[in-house]
Amino acid sequence: VRESVIDGVTGRLVPxxxxxxxxxxxxxxxxxxxxxQKMAEAGRERVQALFTPEAIAQQTETVYASVLS
Length: 69
Fold this sequence. Notes:
The protein is mostly helical. The protein contains 3 helices and no strands. The protein has helices at about 20-30, 35-50, 55-69. The longest helix has 18 residues, at about 35-50.
């Protein structure tokens, strides 16, 4: 998730196993719809730019080459 979500820019990150933090982030998004919409748009743009099939294939190829060398 950290590769796709930048906290406060493209979404909200909360610590694992922290229901109060998750609830607070959800409430914040519900109370600040304009900010939530901006984050959603920024997130979509980030995914479209960084996670194309070609980019994922290149990243996978790089990992394989590293492991095999």
